[in-house]
Amino acid sequence: MKIVFLIDDDPDDREIFEESLLSLDVPLKFEEAANGKEAVEKLSSSDFQKPDLIFLDINMPIMDGWQFLKHIKKDENFNDIPVVIYSTSSSQEDKALAVKHQASEFITKPYSISSLRQELKKTIFTFLSAE
């Protein structure tokens, strides 16, 4: 079973994301963290399975998405995991930073649940079906 890991400080966004993801009727396990520091701690834990795909918010307290992305791309145990920036931002600067820091894709958070489901379905198919 593939594991999708969402790192986002907004509990409502995490809940909507999880519901949308699980509604796709694809066998997936969902994991979550509220910020980059919590995500690093979970990844370092011996009882946490390595995720197959990470969705990462940018603006978070304690350790933001950029700091987490730099950290994970330097770690040989995790640098092969595709990281999708998942943010309310749609700025070209943020998209350029995502490319610079080796994110696999950049998604602006959709405003509707149906749009989110479509985006997740496309992304899951792109990154997890080839394995």
Plain-language structure description:
Keywords: Phosphoprotein. The modification 4-aspartylphosphate is found at residue 57. It holds the Pfam family Response_reg. The protein has 131 residues and is α/β, with parallel strands linked by helices. The chain has one domain (2-124): Response regulator (Rossmann fold). The chain contains five helices and five strands. The protein has a five-stranded parallel sheet with strand order 2-1-3-4-5, sandwiched between helices. Helix 1 (11-22) packs across helix 5 and helix 2 (36-44) runs parallel beside helix 3 (65-74). The longest helix is centred in the last third of the chain and has 16 residues, at 113-128.
The radius of gyration over CA amounts to: 14 Å
Q: Give the strand line-up of the largest sheet.
A: 2-1-3-4-5
| CATH domain class | Alpha Beta
**In sequence order, what are the helices and strands, one letter per element?**
EHEHEHEHEH
| Overall structural domain count | 1
Largest sheet: 5 strands, parallel
Between the first and last Cα atoms, what is the distance in angstroms?
11 Å
Number-wise, the strands total 5
The CATH superfamily title: Response regulator
Low-pLDDT stretches are none
CATH architecture: 3-Layer(aba) Sandwich
What best-fitting shape do the alpha-carbon axes yield?
globular
Strand content: 15-25%
